[in-house]
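Notes from the pairing session

We agreed to fold both candidates in a single pass and log them together. This is the raw record for the first candidate, unedited. Please don't reformat it; downstream parsing expects exactly this layout.

Candidate A
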Amino acid sequence: MLQELGEKIEEVLNRNVPIICETKFASDLYIYGGLIKNIMLGKKFKDIDLFLLGEKSGFSGFIKENNLKYRLNRFGNPKVFINGVHVDLSTLTSFQDAIVYNIDGLFYNLSQHQFVFAGFENFVKKEKIEVENSNLVNPNFLRVLQRRSHLNKFARTIKDNGMLSQLRKEICELE
């Protein structure tokens, strides 16, 4: 399942934002967030979230070299529009900077064509969504409830579709 999911992620990126796949970045490029979850569920994605891990200059050279227009998203990171697709670009010092709940800790390393788990494996094993990084929890209570509800729905769907047991098996084999 993970290999198939990785192939689908790369297919979606190559079809929609090939410039991302063709560019060589100074550090590994990661995909995370809704794109992965939506592909797992067979849904359309709204945007693409990418990050470079520990890269000081971030995406500034990429934006400049490709003459991309951008605006800053609510986190102060550039959001570019490529071929009609919104792409959020972040530079993170650690995986924890992108994780609120353990279910958020699923990353695809586009540079190495493999998944990285940073808490997601705990969700898969326990079948329970837990806070991994309380510093990132939005203080707006309603927003926290909405996000939790959305993640619970995703968790139920992948469990009901048999994906959770398949993920558990594959993750255990990797360990």
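Candidate B (folded immediately after A)
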Amino acid sequence: MNKLNVLIVDDEFLALKLLEDYIGRLPFLKIIAKVKSPVKALEILNESQVDLLFLDIQMPAISGTNLLKSLKHKPVTIFTTAYSEHAVEAFQLDAVDYLLKPFSFERFLQAVNKAQEQIGLRQNMHASGGSVGNEIREYFSFKSDGRFVKVHLDEILFVEGLKEYVKIVCRDKRYVVLESLKNLEETLPKASFMRVHKSYIASVSKIKSMYGNMLDMGEYEIPVSREKKEEVMKFVFK
């Protein structure tokens, strides 16, 4: 198993030491840097490959949430903080988990396992989904219910966002996957799939009709947002 590159960002010395200790117990994790300054963290994130980011929220100069918002390509992120009130914002930023200090090794391990699954999903999608020349991929792979699944793009009707999970709805099956809707939007080919609502991505070829603010997907109906309605009309019914 290839080791995952880890960056720790926390302005508390004891928090850095605890994470360093916990990470040291897992042979598949490799700390590439541990920093107290979010500004220094930005330098590292722009210059190095970071697979997994442990990120405090309340820090000088830049908060952890604002740091993550500033990144174009976000690594899989686990927030570590003493404050529970930032949890909603953290998950809106697609964090894989939110650890409240002080946290046990068992709770840390649970978060790492979730992160490992999401990193594996991203790698599988890139392996099966990268374009070669003008070729567009026909399928992608992901992990669902403990097993790897390969789904042909033509089977997908739509994808629904469920906070840190997505539901991939196919003609005869549904899968719940630990991934963000935003990441899937970037992964699926834009010629075939369209974000029609903050919580939905639709397969363009499966849209039968639109009436009001609903899209007819055959057996299903999904909403289209007011902001996307004109774009859907132009792209789907041109």
